[in-house]
Amino acid sequence: MTDAVAAIPEETAPVPLLEPREGLPPVVADETALAETVAAFAGGTGPVAVDAERASGYRYGQRAYLIQLRRAGAGTALIDPIACPDLSALGAALADAEWVVHAATQDLPCLAEVGMTPRRLFDTELAGRLAGFPRVGLGPMTENVLGLSLAKEHSAVDWSTRPLPEPWLRYAALDVEVLVELRDELERELDAQGKLGWALEEFAALVDAPRPAPRTDPWRRTSQLHKVRRRRQLAAVRELWLARDRIARERDVSPGRVLPDAAIVNAALAMPLNAPALLAVTGFGPRANRRQLDQWLAALQRAREIPENQLPPAAAPHDGPPPPRAWADKDPVAAARLSAARAAVTELAEQHNLPAENLITPDLVRRVSWEPPATPDAESVAAALRALGARQWQVDLVAPVMAEAFSTPAE
């Protein structure tokens, strides 16, 4: 196995990547320019580097506000998906190309919204994980593999800004400048480690993955919700969260900019009855206008009026096994199986120099440990893992060690 993290000697200082090699292209913001871009990329060759910039923390939702592409023979394109919201023609032009994306799970949903969906892809972040790199951000990967440094000072800016400042556009263009070269080096590294087949299975799974279903009770993801113990107070969190979400959607701003999570939890714990009492709650203050205060007070009042038998349950409903911390009381034998399986998976991941969660997801380990096959041999465990969506390379590696762990569970 090669040493992935030593691809570039430590004493070699990375070379700053400061300018796109063909200069900064104009932003594509009308149908004429888009048609020219589609034609250019349809005539390009080889993989196409794809990236998207969102306005997380500023705007509601995760839509793309800038899309960057680069392909041999076509150069780099910067596309404004607000001015050009239908990019299905571009997606069709790239249908037969392999897309090179860094952290595909972040970008694929917003690309699909504008009509761009890959048939094949190479995820350089996931490739870095499988190859054993300890830091898999685009900046560290580019430094470690190519010896080039990318400035990342604009990564968290408000990409919904118009017009976009030139330094931001330069940053965005550079994100796809060497992505294909990074892909090629990582492919060689994975092949040398005997992991290229694993990566190809993972990439295919990303392409074929269905769109995630809407989350059940998304309000339960409110930060610090663990402080809320009473069901009436949970109802207050839910009503405040729903009111905030409606306001954020109407104003197209990030919900946290309307009201922080901590303020929602504090108000639910205090259950203030009037505006002065609400203003005294940490997270609310003199900047809150009267209309906003009335909306929050109305949400709290709705929570007070919910019948007892309609209050939200203390724990979120789920279709899987109970939380692992409860296993020792509910089923000590299952708890022992889980402990043994986790230890076996961790050891196997260390042997192959990759994160345990990429070897097999913790959820699958829990599910099979909670309800193992009647005869928990390697073949039966393999069938259980496949039924839950594990890739074949994962099944081949993990099933034998889990079956062995089940036969001799930890005390």
Provide an overview of this structure.
It is built from 19 helices and eight strands. By secondary structure, it is of the alpha/beta class. A six-stranded mixed beta sheet has the order 2-5-4-3-6-7, with helices on both faces. Strands 1-8 form a two-stranded parallel ribbon. Strand 6, helix 3 and strand 7 form a beta-alpha-beta unit. Helix 18 packs across helix 19. The protein is flat. The two termini are 34 Å apart.
List keywords for this structure.
DNA polymerase, domain 1, Nucleotidyltransferase, domain 5, flat, two-stranded parallel ribbon, alpha/beta, six-stranded mixed sheet, 411 residues, 8 strands, 3 domains, 49% helix
Task: Please describe the topology of this protein.
Blueprint: E1 15-17, E2 27-28, H1 31-42, E3 45-54, E4 64-72, E5 75-79, H2 88-93, E6 98-101, H3 104-113, E7 120-123, H4 124-131, H5 138-146, E8 148-150, H6 166-175, H7 179-192, H8 196-208, H9 231-251, H10 255-258, H11 261-270, H12 275-279, H13 290-305, H14 327-330, H15 332-351, H16 356-359, H17 362-370, H18 378-387, H19 392-407
Parallel strand pairs: 1-8, 2-5, 3-6, 6-7
Antiparallel strand pairs: 3-4, 4-5
- The CATH topology of the largest domain comes to Nucleotidyltransferase, domain 5
The percent range for strand residues is 5-15%
Helix content: 40-55%
The overall pLDDT, averaged over residues, is 94
* Helix-strand makeup class: alpha/beta
CATH class bucket of the largest domain: Alpha Beta
Number of strands: 8
- H/E element order: EEHEEEHEHEHHEHHHHHHHHHHHHHH
Radius of gyration: 25 Å
**What's the architecture of the largest domain, going by CATH?**
2-Layer Sandwich
For the largest beta-sheet, the strand count, sense and barrel status come to:
6 strands, mixed
Q: Report strand order across the widest sheet.
A: 2-5-4-3-6-7
Query: Count of helices?
Result: 19
CATH superfamily of the largest domain: Ribonuclease H-like superfamily/Ribonuclease H
- Pick out the low-confidence regions: 1-9
